[in-house]
Amino acid sequence: MKKKTGKIVLLSLALAATLLISFGAPLGIPTWDDVFSIFSPVPVMEEDGLYVHFLDVGCADSAYITCNGYHVLIDAGNPSMQETAAYYLRQCGVKKLDLVIASHPDKDHIGDMPSVLQRLQVLRFWMPDIEEDLVPQADYYTDMLDAVDRQGIAMQNPKPGESLQLGQMQFTVLAPLKAYGSSNNNSLVIKLTYKNNSFLFTGDAEKQSEQDILESGADVHADVLKVGHHGSKSSSTKTFLQAVSPQYAVISVGDNSYGLPKRTVIRRMEKQNIQVYRTDVYGTIVFYSDGNTVTPLTAA
């Protein structure tokens, strides 16, 4: 009898707490958003400057960038993941994105993009030109394009050399430099520059695209490199890593049957004294830049 009474008391207390949190805002009682923020994995962003979040979305890609009131998303991961890009942005309190970039149309990069485009106000949308035989015959892709159309979002297929200035951030397109007949090599490669710091986002670009970028004479040096293709040995050649010469490298990866990231790629970076961060080890990884120094907010 005592056990039953105890359960009733606990349930009554839980119900009372639920009602207070749900309807007690006028009385100064914390709301559900306040409660969730306490347990949120999102770091507190109090200082002015640049924050780059590499989301833990499994063996997929998504990066959220914010700087002095501007918000950008590069790729959106896979909707099958528990922590999706759309969920993370909600946790950050983001309601508007000044720029969304789909590096290329693979599901692990744009699978959750329809959800993002439907839930947030998006001002600009970038994606590469896609050869007809590389267009995915899949709902996630058509849903993404439908969302762009329905929301009246300005869509662009930017070319190498084109750039966009958002406050003190500059986003410059470095690739693809030609049609490759490969979805991975057709990835948009984007360099983000903020004052004296820079980040390089390579999508799934492989060694052929990397070589063409170097031969184009583009400035690829960056403080932080988002490692291409989840640490596959088809990307991140020794020559490319030497040219980028990053202080930090981020590998967005999770459980997979491909053995990613490849040990050979890790060794290449270790030989160049590049500090490697992996989302499968550290979870979501956040970097902060004051314009002169890049600081990882994730403990290594």
TrEMBL record:
Recorded superkingdom: Bacteria
Pfam family, any one: Lactamase_B
Chain ranges of the Metallo-beta-lactamase domain: 59-255
Gene3D superfamilies: Ribonuclease Z/Hydroxyacylglutathione hydrolase-like (3.60.15.10)
Name of the protein in its database record: MBL fold metallo-hydrolase
UniProt source species: Candidatus Scatavimonas merdigallinarum
Source lineage: Bacteria, Bacillati, Bacillota, Clostridia, Eubacteriales
